[in-house]
Design a protein that fits this description.
Oligomer: single chain
Helix content: 40-55%
CATH class: Alpha Beta
Distance between the termini: 40 Å
Radius of gyration: 18 Å
Strand content: 5-15%
Strand order of the largest sheet: 3-2-1-4-5-6-7
Order of helices and strands: EHEHEHEHHEHEHHE
Shape: globular
CATH architecture: 3-Layer(aba) Sandwich
Number of domains: 1
Structural class: alpha/beta
Number of helices: 8
CATH superfamily: NAD(P)-binding Rossmann-like Domain
Largest sheet: 7 strands, parallel
């Protein structure tokens, strides 16, 4: 991959996981447009990641790509240090990457649960831990008598945690674990790191939905529309910038969590 990491070294730097495609890419581009230098994490989508890096660099003056398998604990533990080595510092982590595979209570297995837990919850927790360690050892922090929040972790969650149904059983369990970790990490990592959740509603279509079906489902909310990618990205940016928010979740879903859905959107 061709990285553009020499420019913009003075800019705040954010690691966005799953930034090669879909919502992660939209978040990365929005943050770059707002003046953040972006470390673009990807797993297999090299071509897409290369394009995202180039577009982020054009917007903000610096970006780089980093490959890691978030199912692999050692790979996760090495990710943020790799970003620091290449870009010099990291100020924030946005955990956008997510495993999303269907199972139910009937098809549930330990292996399915573990797969989702590792990538969706475990990786996010380790990256938060790594950011705290990095910040604690930065001279301007270590030598300060009055530490203030200097870093932030944003975890992408899901409105279905507030409007549960039994579909995607292991995925939902993993996101519930991550939502609980928001509170524990916000306490454990303060005052150096804030931890904020952002929970979108139905935002992007998939192979499971026709365009017409997606549009119909997207309108199912008290506001007449669910979240768009720019809506979610702006909420992430707000969470990064607002120094008084930690240990809570912003629901960005047009109010879909207030409605009762018996099935997951993709199966309705």
């Amino acid at each position: 991959m061709s990285d553009h990491c020499t420019a913009g070294a003075h800019l705040p730097t954010v690691l966005v996981t799953g930034a090669a495609r879909r919502l992660g890419r939209e978040i990365a581009l929005a943050l770059a447009a707002a003046g953040w230098r972006v470390a673009v994490h990807y797993r297999n989508s090299l071509d897409d990641a290369t394009a995202t890096v180039a577009e982020c660099a054009a917007l903000t003056g610096g970006a780089a790509g980093f490959r890691a398998n978030l199912d692999d604990e050692m790979a996760v533990r090495g990710l943020l240090p790799a970003v620091v080595q290449k870009l010099g510092h990291v100020d924030a982590v946005v955990n956008s990457a997510s495993t999303f595979e269907h199972d139910t209570n009937s098809s549930f297995s330990f292996s399915a649960m573990e797969k989702h837990m590792r990538s969706n919850a475990g990786a996010a927790i380790l990256l938060a831990q790594a950011l705290h360690t990095h910040l604690a050892h930065r001279p301007e922090v270590a030598n300060s008598d009055t530490p203030t929040p200097r870093g932030v972790v944003v975890n992408l969650l899901d409105q279905k945690l507030w409007n549960q149904n039994p579909d995607f059983f292991s995925y939902t369990l993993s996101k519930a674990a991550l939502e609980a970790a928001n509170t524990m990490l916000a306490l454990a990592l303060s005052p150096l790191v804030r931890v904020v959740g952002v929970a979108p509603g139905l935002t992007l279509t998939s192979h499971l939905l026709s365009d017409a079906k997606f549009e119909a489902l997207h309108r199912l909310s008290p506001l007449g529309r669910s979240s768009t990618a720019p809506d979610v990205a702006s909420a992430v940016l707000f969470a990064l910038q607002n120094q008084s928010i930690t240990g809570t979740t912003l629901l960005v879903d047009g109010g879909q969590h207030l409605m009762r859905f018996e099935r997951d959107f993709s199966l309705m």
